[in-house]
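Self-study notes.
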Amino acid sequence: MKVKTILVSQPEPTAEHSPYTELEEKQKVKVDFVPFIHVEGVDAKHVRQQKINLADYTAIILTSRNSVDHFFRIAKEMRYEVPTSLKYFCTSEAVAYYLQKYVVYRKRKIYVGKRLVKDLIPTLKKFKKEKFLLPSSNMLKPTIPVQLNELGIDWKQGVFYKTVISDLSHLEHVFYDIVVFFSPSGIKSLFENFPNFKQNNTRIAVFGNSTNKEAERHGLKVNILAPTPEAPSMTMALENYIKEHNK
């Protein structure tokens, strides 16, 4: 079956020329964006209830742009002036560069991994005297606490924001040839909104093993999987699939 319409379960990219724009133009398909999950910040009172005093920490582990935004938001709510001596351990260059929204980058001690917390472990080992704070959502990957505990560092997780399932009722009678998922939460959102969802002729595209496992757990047939050696990005995986089926 040919592909004409694609639903991506994320917010629309803010960049003027995103890979999805190119996909639409080259393959003559329509791509829509609807976030299946969204983030809501918790208030400073909720953070204090977790027995977190920001002044107690000398280093911070940042795993996403959301963690950056909500750390500085809570600091502002608590009227805490973030010291220039605070060390930042970022899981990727994208997260590190995003810090520039809040701090003068060249004047801060910033350490960067390749993509995941495990990539930071060799660096974290060198700073065992620091006291680390990990601001996160309520849905932290279970492997992260295991990895940090094995390191033997002094650290604490703080829930600074929550991942919340979005209302998708407006999609009840709308059908797409492909629906794209990037997290297990997106799959859970689909079935919480539509408990009787039937895949029928809809093709499912997933990014990452955990998303793939969640799709299979809900009885979905995964037609497009990324990343792979042939398709390191989702847009490349979609393009390869469309080229094959729109001949």
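Second protein, same conventions, sequence then structure:
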Amino acid sequence: MVHFNWTQLIPGVGHHYIHVATAILVTALLSIFSLLAYRAYKKSPTFDPADKFSVKAVAEILTEFIMGLVNMIIGPHGKKYVPMFGAIFMYILVNNVMGLVPGMTPATDNFNTTLAVGLFTFVMYTWLGIKEHGAAYIKQFTGHLPLNLSPILLLLPLMFVIELISHAVRPMSLGLRLRGNMVGDHTVLGIFTDLVPIGIPVVFYLLGLFVCFVQAFVFTLLSMVYVSMAVAHDDH
């Protein structure tokens, strides 16, 4: 059964393009938020804690949250990646939360969207690894075997294939995990909302909001881990 979706009121948006319309809507909302946050910062270019709820306060909380994770996973030198991880986190989070709005379907319910974000992560950490190491990035596919032992060299072709497959499945793994969890969460919410439309759904809305945050957090954290491994230097 096909459920009504608000985005279907947009001319040209059929059932098969709901996720595209939602993704565009989320991108527009995040763009507006970014412009408002930038404008607020230009008016008051300080990092003092905000004394009231505002766009600037939300942006500061998000930035501090992402910077804390980056320092923990990558280190202080990873500060330059904060905008990228912040964009990934907010894009996934807002898309997830769209599923809690009656009459809306999150773009992250569609594997095309989650796979695209996974591919973006794959392309970015690969490019960052090549940028950091140059041709030496190929060592990422050797399993970090000691190349000074001749018997070990016989294992290099096997390790290369294994590591290549491991890297290739990462976008699909990220996409499937995100899509599966969000479909499950919104299905449960929909079932209990239909069964008991008053009172009980509040609990599942709160649980759903928590799941939305956790899934955005896990995706972003894994992205940080991949970037950390790609740009890390082997000191041994």
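Instructor comment on the second fold: The two ends are 58 Å apart (CA to CA).
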